[in-house]
Task: structure prediction
Amino acid sequence: MEKPTLVTIKISHYCEKARWALDYLSMDYREDAHLPVFHLGAARRNGGRSTPQLVGPGLRLLDSTSILLHLDGASGGRLFPAGGAEREAALRFELLMDKELGPHARRLVYWYLLADRGALLRVVSDGSRPGQERALGLLFPAIRWAMRKSMRVDRVGAERSRARLHAFFAGVDAMLSDGRRFLFDGRFTAAELGLASLAAPLLMPAGYLPWVDRASLPPGMRGLREEFGGYASARHALWAYESFRGAKAEGLDR
Ligand SMILES: N[C@@H](CCC(=O)N[C@@H](CS)C(=O)NCC(=O)O)C(=O)O
Result:
């Protein structure tokens, strides 16, 4: 049976969410990783534009939460609560993260990274796509223009994203304020997985983008961990990343 392919932008936090879910469930897959913008050829061939995409025989999933829902079904409910109000709340929370945390964290981080050519090239270059790395270096001004335009990365946008992120983390703090250990169902679910993945560019947990020397990041980007790290929900995200990024579902109690 042919392995499914996970098409990614290697550094994307949405792609990390899908990759982590596949790893957590010990699913067999291959990754077709790209640098930003260079993903478009592969993504369009599958009929989409953004990554992650999970494709294979009889499979064409073009969004991270669709991928998680598919994997939840395939694993007998390892990622989401089984049913009822808890499942509905967990699904709503996943969509909220996709809409708020994901895009606003990305825009704020790119605000700092796109202003520093060297730092951007170091972050996107893990050595797996030397041709794309060279091309990005050569075409940097045009690619930066396209990325700023498509994600509306400018000072006003960055400050709006910063405010939205503070509101988001404060909202999740309120959910955790009753002392619960996990967001839903008393166990690790897609909620922790999504929160920790989508917050990773802000908080930079140790295992995320391991080839990146943290000290070489732009100071503004380094400051984000401190700016958001005081939220209980940000600490929860860091804890989830550190405790569960290498975990396998079959090794855990339900
Ligand atoms: N809702 C989508 C969002 C994914 C997304 O925005 N992916 C970004 C990478 S972080 C992307 O591929 N952007 C490139 C583009 O849209 O051309 C999901 O959950 O998969």
Residues 84-113 form the longest helix (30 residues). The chain has twelve helices and four strands. The pocket of glutathione is lined by residues 9, 12, 14, 49-52, 63-65, 98, 106 (CB under 6 Å). The chain has a mean pLDDT of 96.
